[in-house]
From TrEMBL:
Residues 703-737 form the Exo-oligoalginate lyase C-terminal domain. One of its GO terms (molecular function) is lyase activity. NCBIfam families: olalg_lyase. One of its GO terms (cellular component) is periplasmic space. It comes from the Bacteria. Residues 387-648 form the Heparinase II/III-like C-terminal domain. This is Alginate lyase. Pfam families: Alg17C_C, Alginate_lyase, Hepar_II_III_C.
Length: 756
């Protein structure tokens, strides 16, 4: 038999596993090693029979075969390097951090490939790696670069230790029956029990939290419990250390997901937490099917997969809260989520996402996905308008998603969610807009270069707190240059927006919410809509923000946008020689002022070009406002911030004000063919009308026709309202109405739309 050291030498010489100069007996590739081993060592996270089925059938389905080949190639590189288990030293992105990450991936992959091929070299490699950890792990204390309240042992934070254990437990389960009793005992006790104990009994506050760190920890401990046949360990993972149900995996499902499957911390962290939720749930289903874990809370884990896909545009997740912008549908956590959700639900629309990912799991669920794709069962995923409620009971606000024009058409996201715990941003009633496959009205996300050691070791940068979380960094109201809740997330956690409206009709989609408590004595209500009209080439976004304060204040309303400015449609003093800074704190210190207008109540315009499409933004306010053009990057000595543009409307010395605007996508610029079409806006004018208990935003189109969106102060469906538009009194029942008025006929009665 070729020993592991010799194997590594052969691999490093360029010989792949399949090319090694020895032949395994035929029985080794077809019979399960567990047949001759005591039951306590047989695999339980995936059964021996399931592994045999994958080994026999996997090559028939291209996606599964491709995934196996990809895993084999990655493992060959790891085996060529040998068993490398360095003492922990570095923070995220550093050498030791990345090596331990590669190691858990290698252990996981080696276990799967051993089961799929029967090649003992894979099992031996995983064994040798785990025996090396059995030597190292008992010697470890607090990580030398530890951060946060719970530093890890292998990694700088215990979260990463949990991730290691989730992956390594799966690989260990697959090869455990190949070990001698002494080897099993050593690895069981010195690696897996020690790590599980550290992540649970030795860090109880972290383990019992309702938070994504704890989700990874309970999944790691619970899966280890199944592998080691330790039901007490499993029960603590499911129910908390006291096993009373006040903490643990089930409580996390109950508290972190809304009834619609929206996750407390937003899509980016829903993506991250999805892996331990679905992987551990799958282990529970295999070992304790009587728990019916996928039916828990009305099947919320399966809803969470659909909700996460819905919370994306152009393949990327909405960058809400501390989000990295480049995370999207191809992330490995969602690969796991799609495979598990499809196996449980049979929803063929999920297959189209797997097809896009071009990845799957080396698991029975992955085999099901690959088989279904090979059979042509995939159906398009329906990206649809949706109101995703937030909070355990669905009563803590929500995420409103308005969509038109298909997957790469127009998407308007209104963030009316709860705070999102410590990763939340101070941006109630914030909005984002996507069009033509691009981010148009943007959100900064997190100020972080993930695992880039040269940038503060890959952790959150200081500017994440001083800029990215602050209200002025978002597209919502800032009062007196302060952030919502004074920048106190725990205070923010107690106050959620109140949704008022969500409705979708053929030519109008609308969402509205109200926020109280973000500032003392200030209530603000925002309504956003996607409106279609035959004279407009594309749907337009309408925005009305009404502010009611108890005393005069400074009100700022930023719009962070992406594109090259084409026309500044207002007089403004340009800062040509010097760039003044807008303020001193709460994010304002990071904004350079490039231009500023005098106060005016007249609607103004700003237009820009992005990826071959023009955008015209018309905006106004009920009280005189300044228009400020600004850019992020001031007071940034280490160049940590991206340089991004913003338009800020500023009203001073008023207790109340209404801001109103319309964003119109239009036209085409083709640099290759050198033509420009539709560069001019099709909206001639914008104005606001105030009635006794309602406001209307009126768009006058190029033809002279008009369309008005009337919005009631009280959205109760039974309430009747009236407002004078175009010399006529318009009446309707409910929270909103749309009135279309042809050119020269603005005095007509219009069309009444009632809220459902």
């Amino acid at each position: 038999m070729i020993r592991p050291a010799c194997l590594a030498m052969l691999v490093s010489a360029g010989l792949g596993i399949a090319a090694l100069p020895f032949a395994l007996p035929a029985a080794a590739a077809t019979s399960a090693p567990a047949d001759q081993v005591a039951a306590e060592a047989a695999p339980v996270l995936v059964s021996a029979a399931q592994w045999r089925q994958m080994a026999q059938n996997g090559s028939r389905y291209p996606l599964f075969a491709h995934e196996q080949a990809r895993a084999a190639e990655a493992l060959r590189k790891a085996m060529a390097a040998g068993v490398v288990v360095p003492p922990p030293k570095d923070p995220g992105g550093g050498y030791s951090h990345e090596q331990h990450k590669r190691n858990y991936q290698a252990i996981h992959g080696a276990g799967a490939l051993y089961r799929l091929t029967g090649e003992r070299a894979y099992a031996d490699y995983a064994r040798d790696m785990l025996l090396a950890y059995a030597e190292l792990y008992p010697t470890l204390g607090k990580h030398p670069a530890g951060r946060g309240q719970v530093p890890g042992r292998l990694f700088w934070q215990s979260l990463n230790d949990s991730v290691w254990l989730v992956h390594a437990s799966q690989g260990y389960d697959a090869i455990r029956d190949t070990l001698s009793a002494a080897e099993r005992r050593r690895i069981d006790e010195q690696v897996f029990r020690r790590m599980a104990r550290f992540l649970s009994e030795q860090t109880p506050d972290s383990f019992n939290r309702i938070h994504n760190h704890a989700t990874w920890a309970v999944a790691a401990v619970g899966m280890t419990g199944y592998v080691l046949r330790d039901q007490d360990m499993v029960d603590k993972a499911l129910l908390g250390l006291s096993k009373d149900g006040k903490a643990g995996f089930l409580k996390q499902i109950d508290d972190l997901f809304s009834p619609d499957g929206y996750y407390e911390e937003g899509p980016y962290y829903q993506r991250y937490a999805l892996a331990p939720f679905v992987i551990f749930a799958n282990a529970i289903e295999r070992n304790e099917p009587q728990r019916r874990i996928f039916a828990h809370k009305d099947g919320v884990l399966l809803k969470a997969v659909d909700t996460l896909v819905q919370s994306s545009y152009g393949g990327y997740f909405f960058p809400i809260n501390d989000a990295i912008l480049d995370k999207g549908l191809d992330t490995e956590e969602l690969v796991a989520g799609i495979a598990v959700a499809y196996a449980q639900s049979g929803d063929a629309a999920l297959l189209s996402i797997a097809e896009r990912q071009r990845r799957t799991l080396l698991s029975p669920e992955g085999l099901q996905v690959a088989e279904a794709l090979a059979a042509g069962r995939a159906k398009p995923f329906a990206f649809r308008p949706a109101m995703l409620r937030d909070g355990p009971d669905g009563d803590r606000g929500g995420l409103a998603i308005l969509r038109a024009g298909g997957e790469d058409g127009q998407t308007l996201v209104m963030k009316n969610t709860s705070q999102g715990m410590g990763h939340g941003h101070f941006d109630k009633l914030n909005w984002l807009f996507y069009d033509n496959g691009q981010r148009v009205v943007t959100d900064y996300g997190a100020a972080r270069f993930l695992n880039v050691e040269a940038k503060a070791g890959g952790i959150y940068l200081p500017e994440n707190s001083s800029w990215a979380k602050q209200t002025v960094a978002h597209n919502t109201l800032a009062v007196n240059e302060q952030s919502h809740f004074g920048g106190d997330w725990k205070l923010g956690q107690r106050h959620a927006p109140a949704p008022l409206l969500f409705a979708v009709t053929g030519d109008l989609q609308i969402a509205s919410a109200r926020m109280q408590g973000a500032y003392d004595g200030v209530v603000f209500t925002r309504t956003l809509a996607l409106l279609e009209h035959p004279e407009l080439g594309l749907p337009v976004a309408i925005d009305l923000l009404r502010v009611q304060g108890s005393k005069p204040a400074r009100y700022d309303l930023p719009l962070h946008f992406n594109g090259h400015i084409i026309n500044v449609g207002f007089d403004a003093q340009r800062a040509l020689a010097t760039r003044p800074v807008l303020g001193k704190a709460n994010g304002y210190q990071h904004l350079w002022v490039d231009a500023s207008s005098e106060p005016s109540s007249e609607p103004r315009t700003l237009s820009w070009l992005l990826d071959g499409r023009f955008y015209s933004y018309r905006f106004g306010s009920s009280a005189p406002s300044r228009a400020i053009l600004a850019e992020s990057g001031a007071n940034d000595p280490d160049f940590n911030l991206r340089r991004e543009q913003a338009l800020i409307q500023r009203v001073d010395g008023q207790p109340e004000v209404s801001f109103f605007a319309v964003l119109e996508p239009h036209g085409e610029y083709n640099g290759t063919a050198e033509y420009v079409r539709g560069a001019s806006s099709r909206i001639r004018a914008l104005h606001r009308v105030r009635g006794d208990d309602a406001e209307a935003i009126v768009l006058t189109l190029a033809s002279g026709a008009s369309v008005a969106l009337a919005i009631a102060d009280d959205p109760a469906p039974e309430r009747r309202h009236r407002i004078a538009i175009g010399g006529k009194t318009r009446q309707w029942t409910g929270g909103y109405a749309r009135f279309d008025m042809p050119a020269g006929e603005q005095a007509s009665s219009g069309t009444e739309n009632r809220t459902p």
